[in-house]
TrEMBL record, chain A:
The lineage of its organism: Bacteria, Bacillati, Bacillota, Bacilli, Bacillales. The chain crosses the membrane at residues 28-47. This is Uncharacterized protein. Keywords: Membrane, Transmembrane, Transmembrane helix. It comes from the Bacteria.
TrEMBL record, chain B:
Signal peptide: none annotated. Keywords: Germination, Membrane, Transmembrane, Transmembrane helix, Transport. NCBIfam families: 2A0309. The keyword Ubl conjugation does not apply. One of its GO terms (biological process) is spore germination. PANTHER family: SPORE GERMINATION PROTEIN A2. The keyword Transmembrane applies. Its main location: membrane. This is Spore germination protein. It holds the Pfam family Spore_permease. It comes from Alicyclobacillus sacchari.
Length: 68, 365
């Protein structure tokens, strides 16, 4: 869990640092979209690797029963 | 990200070609041959005709509203409902991009780099796409112009080299189970061929014409049919239907002297950039669509964040590429909704609006 959170924090800070100049010059809408994407990516990374039951195998999807 | 002025007519055709067949070549021949068997080939021309009719309608709509692509028209003419539609396209394209990213990653993982963690391969693929898309559609077009023709020529040569090993009896008997198998063939063929609708979402009628979409559609369908027939005649539909990567297995049959014993390596080396370009096109359209919803957003700045989101989403949604195949079995229903029904209804509405506007202005004058 700690390792996953470190990776998630690394992802967010790494990208923000890489684009720091663009981030400072960007408008509010861009910052909001950017933050939502990055924070949800970081959250999804931690949750999907810790709570494995949130993952689906898509076995519930309908299948063709035609065997001819 | 509005650099459409420097996209040539040829680049638009090649972008359409790439979007239709690149990711399709991985698992699609196996999926269609598994259930449609020897009648699988019927699906491709039928779907091409359907998509041709829809492209004609979309093209008429773009001519009635010059200088605007379909996404812009949705937002401008349908207001908040149009924005919801564009948001729906963002979600569908995100899922499509996640599928392609997982397929490409697993293919490299299985065939080339079995000891490298899949996430590392995916990061490299997505990073390449991010740099490509930040450069604008011109870079995507140039990359497609570089790799797609070369890949098509090499793949056609590979197919021709396999001619001595083809068994033509694998195409028969025709219609063994009536129309069920051809219908299943049409269902699976909708998945790649419906993708041609990406062109009117990206380009307005200033750059994009019906002729370009026809060329892109016909060449890509011809190439898909060629790959399908080669897989079928070389491996038989029974065997190809059990392979994860039937086209790759067919290419592995080729032995050109000792020096080119692994002829599959140069072919896969040329194919890999094409799937990266397809993922890049998806990323470009997603960021452009977000800009249509929030016009103040700077699409170029948000590309890395959107790329990171889809990378993580792809690994959460699809732990392996086997799950992508389960989704691909039902994906044509999404194609019917998002690439056929919604564009047809929306374009009919837009055409009626344009006609009403024209008649009103005539009455006023």
């Amino acid at each position: 869990m700690i390792l996953l959170m470190t990776q998630a924090v690394g992802l967010v800070t790494g990208l923000v640092l890489l684009q720091w100049r663009e981030w400072k010059e960007s408008n509010r809408v861009t910052r909001v979209i950017y933050s939502v994407c990055l924070l949800s990516a970081a959250g999804m990374w931690v949750l999907s690797n810790t709570l494995m039951f949130t993952h689906t195998t898509f076995a519930w999807l309908p299948k063709f029963s035609f065997a001819g | 990200m509005n650099v459409l002025e420097i996209t040539s007519s040829r680049q638009i055709v090649i972008i359409g070609l790439c979007y239709v067949f690149s990711a399709t070549l991985v698992t699609w021949p196996g999926q269609i041959l598994r259930l449609a068997r020897q009648d699988a080939w019927i699906g491709v021309p039928v779907c091409a005709l359907v998509m041709l009719a829809i492209l004609w309608l979309v093209n008429r709509t773009l001519h009635a509203h010059p200088g605007k692509d379909l996404l812009t028209l949705f937002v401008e003419r349908y207001g908040w409902f149009g924005k919801c539609l564009v948001a729906g396209y963002v979600l569908v394209l995100s899922l499509d991009m996640a599928k392609d990213m997982r397929l490409g990653t697993d293919f490299v993982n299985v065939v080339f780099l079995p000891r490298t963690p899949a996430i590392l391969i995916a990061v490299l693929i997505v990073a390449t796409c991010v740099f490509m898309v930040r450069g604008g559609i011109e870079i995507v077009g140039r990359m497609a112009e570089l790799y797609i023709p070369l890949f098509i020529v090499v793949a056609l040569c590979a197919g021709l080299l396999l001619i001595p090993d083809l068994s033509w009896q694998y195409l028969q008997p025709f219609f063994e189970k009536g129309v069920i198998r051809p219908m299943i063939g049409i269902w699976y063929a909708l998945d790649p061929i419906g993708n041609i609708m990406i062109l009117p979402l990206m380009f307005s009628n200033r750059h994009y014409t019906f002729r370009q979409s026809c060329i892109a559609l016909l060449v890509s369908c011809g190439f898909l049919e060629f790959v399908l027939i080669i897989c079928q005649l070389n491996l038989s539909s029974t065997l190809a239907g059990h392979f994860m990567y039937p086209a790759y297995e067919a290419v592995r049959e080729i032995r050109l002297t000792d020096f080119l014993d692994r002829f599959d390596l140069p072919i896969v080396g040329l194919w890999l950039p094409t799937i990266v370009i397809k993922i890049g096109i998806n990323l470009y359209v997603i960021c452009s669509a977000l800009q249509r919803i929030w016009p103040a957003a700077d699409a170029r700045t948000i590309v890395p964040a959107v790329g990171a989101w889809i990378l993580v989403f792809g690994f959460w949604a699809f732990h392996t590429s086997v799950e992508v195949i389960s989704v691909n079995d039902v994906w044509p229903s999404m194609v019917i909704l998002w690439w056929i029904v919604i564009p047809v209804l929306a374009c009919t509405g837009l055409l009626l609006m344009a006609r009403m506007q024209r008649s009103r202005s005539m009455h006023a004058s």
